[in-house]
Each structure stands twice: as structure tokens, then as C-alpha cells.
Amino acid sequence: MSSDYDIGGVDLTDSSYTVVQSLIRNKYRATDASGDVVLRGKQKMFKLKEEFPFTDADGNDAFTVKAGGIIDVAGDYALVDAATGEELVILDSTSTR
Question: What's the pTM value of the predicted model, to 2 decimals?
Fold first, then answer.
């Protein structure tokens, strides 16, 4: 079943995922319930706005998380589909569960 939030080329149909951040640099790895890597990402250095491109397990561009503003510590981030260039969702740090 497809939704407005589907990311082209990324299969996220597992029941759970784990995201691990590297201790040294803003690098991330997402694994499925079996421990297989499904996404990798790292912060682009020397950008005025924070930007975190993510690739799938094969190294193909999947999506990018981009800050809404310069040095946006507690602001909004857009999740942008790499295949379409479309913003899929805004990640708002003020949202609650």
C-alpha cells in the first residue's frame, strides 16, 4: 500500500528499525529487525544549512534531510525524496507524540 510519505526506491516494510549515530561525526546507520543495513547517512560538512544525505544499502541516493535555516538547532527539517526532489514531510522539533 502506497502513501504520500513513501520514499522512492526505499523499502521500509519491516516492523521495526534501529538508527545508530556514530560517536565521532554526524553519521547514521539504520538497520531492519534482522540487523541488515537499509540506510546510511552523514552530515555534509561546510554547509551553511545542515544537510544529511541518506543512501540505501546499495549506495543509491534515497533522501536528504535539510535544515530550514542556518544553524537551525531546534528548528524544522525537510525530508526530501532524492528521486523526485519533493519535500515529503517537515520534521518539526516542537512536535509531541
Answer: 0.71
**How far is residue 17's CA from residue 35's CA, in Å, rounded to a whole number?**
9
Gyration radius of the chain over CA positions: 14
**What are the backbone dihedrals phi and psi of residue 75, each rounded to the nearest 5 degrees, phi first?**
-100, -155
Confidence of residue 70 (pLDDT cuts 50, 70, 90): low
Short-list 61, 65, 68, CA closest to 9: 61
**From residue 52, how far is each of 13, 24, 61, 62, 97 by CA, in Å?**
22, 15, 11, 11, 24
pLDDT in tens, 83-92: 888 888 887 7
List all residues 6 or more positions away from 9 whose beta carbon is below 8 Å from its beta carbon.
Answer: 56, 60, 62, 82, 83
Q: Is 8 exposed, middle or buried (0-12, 13-18, 19+ CB in 10 A)?
A: middle
